[in-house]
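agent> step 3/5: call structure_predict on target 'Signal transducer and activator of transcription' (Chlamydotis macqueenii).
agent> reason: downstream docking stage needs a structural representation; sequence fetched in step 2, passing through unchanged.
tool.input:
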Amino acid sequence: MSQWSQVQQLEIKFLEQVDQFYDDNFPMEIRHLLAQWIESQDWEAASNNEAMATILLQNLLIQVDEQLDRVSQEKNLLLIHNLKRIRKLLQGKYHGNPMHIAVIISNCLREERRILAAASMPVQGPLEKSLQNSVVSERQRNVEHKVSAIKNSAQMTDQDVKYLEDLQEEFDFRYKTIQSLEQSDKNSALIKQEMLALQAMLNTLDYKRKEVLSKIGRVIHEIDMLMSNMLTEELLDWKRRQQIACIGGPLHGGLDQLQNCFTLLAESLFQVRRQLEKLDELLTRLTYDGDPIPVQRPQLLEKVNFLLYNLFRNSFVVERQPCMPTHPQRPMVLKTLIQFTVKLRLLIKLPELNYQIRVKATIDKNVSTVSNRRFVLCGTHVKAMNMDESANGSLSVEFRHLQPKEMKSSAGSKGNEGPHMVTEELHSISFETQVCLYGLTINLETSSLPVVMISNVSQLPNAWASIIWYNLSTNDPQNLSFFNNPPSATLSQLLEVLSWQFSSYVGRGLNSEQLSMLAEKLTGQVSYNDYQLSWAKFCKEHLPGKSFTFWVWLEAILDLIKKHILPLWIDGYIMGFVSKEKERILLKDKTPGTFLLRFSESNLGGITFTWVDQLENGDVTFHSVEPYNKGRLSALPFADILRDYKVIMADNVPENPLKYLYPDIPKDKAFGKHYSCQPSEVSKPSDGGGKGYVPSVFIPVSKILNDSTDPHSPSDLLPMSPSVYAVLREHLSPTVIETAV
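tool.output (status=ok):
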């Protein structure tokens, strides 16, 4: 089943997450129509290879053309129209930058895998539960309800102001009419009656003025209370969800809803401001003793302006945190002289502001960091916000060509930095702009979450560990001295984040048994409830008896999965995180030939397999092969190794000992679809070897000695070179092979 077919079978809450990352940058119609073709291409490799990306973009347009021909024959007018529009959009947007669409499609496929992995996990972790509790959902609904009510109240007050204006015009007309009469006429009974009517009208005017000012005051108070409480909490919750999403957590939504609330409140405040201006206009035409307008209006206007300032300042947010397109799963880690992207949005979406707000990006502005290193931003660092680049029409700006460059520092300053210091330095990218609207001038500033600057890609794993620890441990957006004294983390939350690393990066998270093994490796304890883990234990101190840290070991496994065994991991056939002691407990009662796959605890980025066997006397024995690392897996796919693996027993008969994947899955049933080709025998020269050479196949081989009653260590099972064994088997007798081995 294709990945897209699996996505379509998800529950609605997961489908809503999928819907969030498909837009005009990569329309869902194309994803649906070209599902199998899209999944068969290597978009991740193309995202770093312009020539490959160019070819893939051309092939994508060809695929769209073929779909157009098909739907044209079916006379599907709507689909024809959409496909023509999409083709024009794709060609225009990516013709000059084909790697950009490769990055986008790669990200979409990765997010689909992460969501599929999340959907398969039976239990939510503590962090995810805290982000999706019912209290938050209820508050979101309350905010939207109150904003709507405020908007309606402001509109109703508009009608009251209009009625007041009409009443005052009538009063003004009647009053001027009397004033224009001759003095003798003013003494008539009819005029005296009219004067009494005017006095009553003036009393009504006074009452209506007070009533309008009171209603305006109530609207302002409601806005103030909403902004001070629920809306502020909503914005802080969104920022926290963004932090968690950046380190692999659930996709964060809700920004469009916040934009709607901010925009409606801004429109209401500007509407109230116009109402106050209208009252000032009415005041210039008519005032009297005890008039409430000159007393209350200045205070109300000052409060409205104050709320507008705060609303605009809070509405300027970093929609997408800084990220290098070459490492989309590692946001906030930036390499010097490598471009990164960052996107900002103004949550107050007013047409008058389109292309009127210019945003400037700087780094470490007015900030003292713990480092002597200083940086500047190269590239286009000033751009205008607009509503045309975003698919949803939001008022936003995306910087795509910024590069951090390290400034020369005083001699010797770098020499004092330890191996971890660079990756524990936090920096800040700031953005500033100015809004001029309806006589108001508002200066806006915001900053990204702290970023780590690296100068070499080898620093990326530890830099990413710093980003994980920071965003797990604090919701402070600008604590650049965090690593002067980093706090401990709750192990249960850290394990959840580690599972997210696997679900977001390699498409399948960790189950409770795998997480328990990691917890035991970190703490040395079987029970870890409420255990507090230090930063040093996670990333700086070597594991007992090893020359590497826990994080370096885990990162090497992630890299191994991503590059060499991804399909097997996604299928769930790699147990992976299981100790040697636990694997023997699992295998001891199983059928001989049952095996499991686990990651090496002693080698970085290694995977091995262990199988159970039975001796003639009935005793159970276990065999583990020397771990395969990325170097050896680059030469031979792991699934083919499992298929072709042979051992030479004492009787010199090579056989494959791997029969069943734990607990009892036939090996070929589990891995058959991942074999690169059908196993073949070594051919004779006459069978087609080119130029007289003997064709060869790679067969991993080990030798097991039966004269040892002790469990074999990995060193007992060092694989013979496949090519050597193939030639030996073709040309030498078993006795001679035994001597050579």
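agent> step 4/5: record observation. The chain has four domains: 3-120, 136-313, 324-407+421-453, 512-674.
agent> proceeding.
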